[in-house]
Amino acid sequence: MKAASDTLYSIIVPVYNRPGEIADLLKSLQEQTDKGFEIVLVEDGSTVRCEEETRRYGEGLRLKYFYKENEGRSIARNYGMDRADGDYFIFVDSDCILPSDYIERLRRTASTTPSDCFGGPDAAHESFSDTQKAINYSMTAFLTTGGIRGGKVSMEKFTPRTFNMGFSREVWQKVGGFREMFSEDIDMSTRIRLAGFGIMLYPEVYVYHKRRVDMKKFWRQVHVFGMSRITLQLLYPGSMKAVHWLPALFTLGALAMIIASFFWIWALVPLAVYLVALWIWGMISTRSVKIGSLGAVAGVVQLTGYGTGFIKAYIWKILLRHGRDEAQEVEMRRGK
């Protein structure tokens, strides 16, 4: 591996029908203070292509654009790695915007604390909608995630997510690429750890992540996350920790308290205390009454969405034993 000062970074971005988002991402890459990177943009069978955006906003960038048939974001990332020249692969989602000093911060951090694999947090850009900012608060708050998505305080080992994740070419050559599955980034991080590579959180190397634009889409997203946690447990027995159970316990506990309140109104006190704490901390964190209030709503959506997905998958895949075939199918898929 080259020294951090000489490293060429390959930023790999899968995209599907998101030309507007790609325009914002490319504009942020044009503004990078460190130009030691290339962009590998893989259009995964889009019906609304972003080729025009790559021509319009790709000026001055070392940009590779590929169009392929639709096979899924993991296969698109693997396709990009096969065609990348970098010593280090960085993965961001098409709905991300990078601060102008992102590469500069990464290079500086990697020179002082090198790691085979890294991940960074995400934040809300000032241009985002109030709902997007509220969802970002919910997805990063200790009160909703236990800090497992890049917080300074965490109940579980940090696991990089593909909205801001990187690893060396050496890791790819030994571990292989991503599997086409939900929570493929957690699966990849687990395989990297099992292969003996180190993983670090680079807290200063952050991205702006737009996330979902409304609560309904957000609920669907986290519902799938809850279901995929069970698949990961089947793939890696013992990987499920106490923090992963909390949304399910919240969902069941909230339901029980609501039912009990019909007979004893004070049964709602624990739930009310938690929601008030989430609301107050949201207002403090976002410095906005409106966003903090929306953040409390997003927190409930997140916890119940993930919790119901987790419960449903736990019953179906573990208690009723319907998950073994799926886990075996995923295990057989090659990462390259």
Fill in the keyword field for this structure:
336 residues, 7-stranded mixed β-sheet, 3-stranded mixed β-sheet, 10 strands
Question: Could you characterize the architecture of this molecule?
Answer:
By secondary structure, the protein is of the alpha/beta class. The chain contains 13 helices and ten strands. β2, α2 and β3 (63-68) form a beta-alpha-beta unit. The chain is globular. The two termini are 21 Å apart. The model has no long low-confidence stretch (mean pLDDT 92).
Radius of gyration: 20 Å
Q: Portion of residues in helices?
A: 40-55%
By secondary-structure content and strand pairing, the structural class works out as alpha/beta
Query: Beta-strand percentage?
Result: 5-15%
Instruction: Determine the oligomeric state from the structure.
Output: single chain
* Spatial sequence of strands, sheet with the most strands: 3-2-1-4-8-6-9
Tally the helices: 13
Q: How would a crystallographer describe the biggest sheet?
A: 7 strands, mixed
Determine the N-to-C terminus distance. Answer: 21 Å
Q: Give the total of beta strands.
A: 10
**What sort of overall outline do the alpha carbons produce when their principal axes are compared?**
globular
- SSE order: EHEHEHEEHEEHHEHHEEHHHHH
Mean pLDDT: 92
Low-confidence stretches are: none
